[in-house]
Amino acid sequence: MAEGPVASRLHGERVLVTGAALADGISDTLVRNVSLQVDNGVLTGLWTNGEHPDMPGATVIDGAGATIIPGMVDSHAHLSMPGGANWITRGFDPLDTLLAVGEENGELLVQAGIRWARDVGAPRRFDPERGVERAASLVLRDRWQGHQDRPYIRAAGTWLAREGVLPDGLGIGIDHAADLAAAVRQQLDEGADLVKLYLDGPDPETCPFSAAEVTAAVRAAHERGAKVAAHATALAGNRVGAKAGVDSLEHGYQLDDDIAQLMIANGVTLVSTLAVMHSWQTFYDTSVNPRFTEAGKREATNERLEQAAASVRLAEAAGVAIAAGSDFGGGSLRANQLVWEIEAMITAGVQPKTALAAATWRGGDLLGVPHAGRLAIGQPAHFSLVHGDPLSDPAALWRIWLTR
């Protein structure tokens, strides 16, 4: 593994940050004059009244003018792929390239203050170390365990889609919908933490799997203690996923009131990925890929983005749990650009507190890691110091001073 980023003063054995502000994604307002204590990588104290203990021998960091934010969670990532306008082609790169890109992405995530990531689909290749075919995401997850210079990972295997929906060889095609649950079990047998279903099909008016078939797949995963993430952009797929009780609808670009109520009743989280389409808007000017140069593509994306923005507003108003995903690698963003999604959500009309929560503790809840995206006493101390107030100026999250 390549060496990680140079450790900052926050990585000392005993650290005290004084006089900073705090934006934790839970409070509606910024809290000022906060002090934070770290001992051997564990958060051991947090004071919001300007007080702090004496800590002889500790590294003291004057945090005046900076804001503490919890380590962020990217709930929709593709670790082994670089993103960009040719992201689909890059899914066919050889394993060595996919893993090298993954190492770059792991370093970028940590440098950006993103300490947890949820990989929701990776290409499969022959793994020479195990002598079997596995998803590249699982190779990276296993390689990074115990390495503090890499993020914590929950990884799906590869995409499970109806035969013919994805490019041949990119995911696993299901010929008969009744075989979906068996394909889920195969992914779990290979070591996946969660399973990724693809609920879009060639006909946007029809989900390629029925609610009963997806329910059986969800049951198969839940019986093994695993979760199910479902790619769904159109109304039909979102409705089936919500009715079947998948753990998350990824993208959710078309929702209605009935789907939102089903999501709440069945505990389904929306993983917002609006920034994908914002990045596509740049590709119309910078790329020669026909996907972005053909007539009418820009207008179609603008219309789709309007629908998606309306859907995330609807979800927030209804009380649906919302997590944030960059879709880096598999959509077009890069690994250090989760903040773009926070900005896109706020531009769409989501409240800043909701957007920050989506990239912190809401993502932790979806991962099933109670302290992920939170500042929790007695848990690993993962946080960043940024310049500005993210609740009034989300661009502050780009302005990282120090991160741990």
Description:
The chain is of the alpha/beta class and 404 residues long. It has two domains: 9-70 and 374-403, Urease, subunit C, domain 1, CATH 2.30.40; 72-367, Alpha-Beta Barrel (TIM Barrel), CATH 3.20.20. The protein has 13 helices and 18 strands. The strands form three sheets. Strands 6, 7, 10, 11, 12, 13, 14, 15 and 16 form a nine-stranded parallel beta sheet that branches.
Helix/strand layout:
Blueprint lengths: L13 E9 L8 E9 L2 E6 L11 E4 L3 E5 L1 E6 L9 H4 L4 H17 L2 E6 L4 E4 L4 E4 H9 L7 E11 L9 E3 L5 H10 L4 E5 L12 H13 L3 E6 L2 H10 L3 E4 L5 H10 L2 E4 L2 H12 L3 H4 L3 H22 L3 E3 L13 H10 L4 H7 L2 H7 L15 E5 L12 E4 L1
Parallel strand pairs: 1-4, 1-5, 6-7, 7-10, 10-11, 10-12, 12-13, 13-14, 14-15, 15-16
Antiparallel strand pairs: 1-2, 2-3, 5-17, 8-9, 17-18
Helix pairs in contact: 2-3, 4-5, 5-6, 6-7, 8-10, 11-12
Question: What separation lies between the terminal Cα atoms?
Answer: 20 Å
**Shape-level CATH architecture of the largest domain:** Alpha-Beta Barrel
Unreliable residue stretches: 1-5
- What is the third-level CATH name, the topology of the largest domain? TIM Barrel
- How much of the residues is beta strand, in percent? 15-25%
How many domains? 2
Structural descriptors:
404 residues, globular, 2 domains, Urease, subunit C, domain 1, TIM Barrel
Brief overview:
It contains 13 helices and 18 strands. The chain has two domains: 9-70 and 374-403, Urease, subunit C, domain 1; 72-367, Alpha-Beta Barrel (TIM Barrel), CATH 3.20.20.140. It has helices at residues 87-90, 95-111, 136-144, 180-189, 211-223, 235-244, 257-266, 275-286, 290-293, 297-318, 338-347, 352-358, 361-367, and strands spanning 14-22, 31-39, 42-47, 59-62, 66-70, 72-77, 114-119, 124-127, 132-135, 152-162, 172-174, 194-198, 227-232, 248-251, 269-272, 322-324, 383-387, 400-403.
